User: Fold these one by one.
Assistant:
Number 1:
Amino acid sequence: MKHLLKMLDLSTEEITEILDLADQLKYELKHNIPHPHLKGKTLGMIFQKASTRTRVSFETGMYQLGGYPLFLSSNDLQIGRGEPVQDTARVLSRYLSGIMIRTFEQKEVEDLAKYGNIPIINGLTDFCHPCQVLADLMTIREFKGKLAGLKMCFIGDGNNMANSLIVGGLKTGMSVSIACPKDYQPPKEILDFAAGYGDKFEMTESPMQAAKDADVILTDVWASMGQEGEAEKRRKAFAGYQVNDELMAVAKADAMVLHCLPAHREEEITEKVFEEHAKEIFEEAENRLHAQKAVMVKLMA
Ligand code: CP
Ligand code: NVA
């Protein structure tokens, strides 16, 4: 494993190794056991979109590992004024031990990996959000004791979260059902991947069908970063794609609910369901820290 660009690149064994290491690092942090695996290393963190969790968990995580994180806003970098990624990658490779980037196009992340020679970590693109999904898998395993054999259900937009959940869920032996409106399905690349898993994958326009007997229900905002101009149109398209009491009634009685956050209450999830599952949702947010520390150790130690 040289980079973390997308879940599609990871083998099942690599995912399991990351989750095992994340559990260990979480244990060490809780028991004040030092774990300075990245002493003397530096991580550049390039943000072309807003962030609370990704920024703070990477920055703190790098510090806990004994390394030094640099926050690089695209407003201040020459990349924001049009310097090509090819050049940025070759320059930053000479200063840093690794780069985490949050941006729009997946190609930009892939290009950083192609032209640079240090590990690149995808901190969210329009296509995928692998760091979040590793934390989600870690949280599901923590609460349910396993992944294989569980049913994961995603309700809403066939977006970056849906894409990574489909791949991460199927690769770890879960069955995955996704409910999304016809015009908001995941891209062909993801559907082609999922087709290889036969009836372990289901896509429907019916949230109730997707949620039936689910062990884990996930959702995400209807308008992602960069889609704010379409918010009104999307609100109409996604009416009915809400995680609420009716939907929870068809899932397993002990079903978990996860949300990558930020959440829009009374849009994709009701306040009531959100608060009833706050324990899982905020453990999921915490697990971003542990899962990403595991990724950084795997790539940079
Ligand atoms: N879930 C997530 O990636 O949150 P941020 O946008 O706050 O980083
Ligand atoms: N789909 C959301 C996820 C935010 C963490 C977005 O891209 O804005």
Number 2:
Amino acid sequence: MITLALSKGRIFDDTLPLLRAANIEVLDNPETSRKLILDTNQPGVRVVLVRASDVPTYVENGGADLGITGRDTLIEHGGQGMYQPLDLQIAKCRISVAVRADFDYERAVKQGSRLRVATKYVAIAREFFAAKGVHVDLIKLYGSMELAPLTGLADAIVDLVSTGNTLKANHLVEVERIMDISSRLVVNQASLKLKQAPIRALIDAFAKAVAERSEI
Ligand code: AMP
């Protein structure tokens, strides 16, 4: 049995065409079913639904043979201990610094004042501001980062941005782009040895689908 760990939403939706390219159809719809283990048309392949930030933990510890998760999550978790054979070029976005439209970010950074930064991505934010020589107080949040500057909890946030609509709706502006993000395939190292043929076949089918799509 091959177990693939996915999270609901963007990554699940963007993975379906890749699975189809490998002749795998997921038989349950996670939006309407409460099942966490989803069958596929291939008796030897199943999908488990986990939180995005739990995908690396499942794969690293053998709860799943493979997983798909964002570069952001992998950096925060520490991707060591997993084989990362492919950038799938899905769920693309960027991780950026944003502030209230009326906050003078340039001035705050230039003056060397301590910036209060709210984020789920503490490791990425710490490294980014340290490299710039900016002193920050990091405030760890688990969601709705946009609220932090609006309520006075923080001066800035570090968050994923795709269209920019969420920032705009909350009167925030993107002031720095930290890095581009897309989702990667991760593989448990022991699974790769023990189930080499089916896992290699899956990696190859995904790689072919990604290459064909980038040619369009
Ligand atoms: P947007 O309004 O399109 O800029 O999307 C921003 C919101 O969607 C933020 O709350 C982000 O945390 C979330 N988001 C954007 N892109 C992704 C992604 N690839 N994966 C997960 N969440 C995302």
Number 3:
Amino acid sequence: MPQKVRKAVFPVGGLGTRFLPATKAMPKEMLPVVDKPLIQYAVDEAREAGIEEFIFVTGRGKVTIEDHFDRSYELESVLEERNKEVALNTLADSMPPTGTVAYIRQREPLGLGHAVWCAKRYVGDEPFAVILADDLILSKTPCLGQMINTRDEMGGGNVLAAMEVPHEHTSRYGIIKPGFDDEKKVEIKHLIEKPDPKDAPSNLAVIGRYVLEPQVFDLLENQARGAGNEIQLTDALSNLLKTSPFYGLRFEGTRYDCGDKIGFLQANIAFALERSDMGQEIANHIKTLAKDL
Ligand code: UTP
């Protein structure tokens, strides 16, 4: 068995400009899908996948994320007085155990690669996961759990979540040049950040889940700025590919880009429809609305 993946990094230092004005004073990661903030889905997914330590790379204006994973004595005492046991349990369940959460400030939003590098000292010399909370995945088995299982099957290495995208959208993603492919996992020969559709080696895109070997930190340390003048994680991964095995996993589930308004609304509908306490009512309402379209 390869070394266990115990730590997850949650980069939450971005500015969320695609979601203004909602994200002017509130972090994008605190936007709720139905009744849970995006970052809570990400942490729950990590916990279900066996992650034991949670490292948030934050920035200015992100303190509500820290408050969300902390106790709220005032609220708890009001709920106790009113015998609101379900609500109290929901609050207790939402927090990882004391001592397992760390926050690091990314002083400037220099890019996802830089945000991951900021976690270097906390991760140390062991494999780790990266979860982007704005990529929300509705699946039977949590996506990160599927990826860690694949890594175990392969005896280690790096695993990225992969998904087919329309060919004309390749310029929005990191795109995989595939090698061996068993239709579920695919060997990654090369990664290209946001290629023009005419230069894209496939339509297999990398989305916001990564299981990485710690060598990536040395590469990020010297990584020059890339697309958008940001330090890109994909560029460092392209270099790591030369020395370490990489696999893409076509995960089971549907991914919603919640950093984008349409993706966010679609996620709300899809997650609400799954819920036993509201799914039917929402379905009826959608049918009523659809009649007039
Ligand atoms: P995005 O590309 O979605 O950027 O970042 P963004 O700034 O959050 O949002 P837009 O595009 O302006 O609307 C992908 C992930 O990387 C994190 C973000 O928080 C998000 O989870 N990130 C990005 C950082 O932590 N730091 C950065 O410097 C950039």
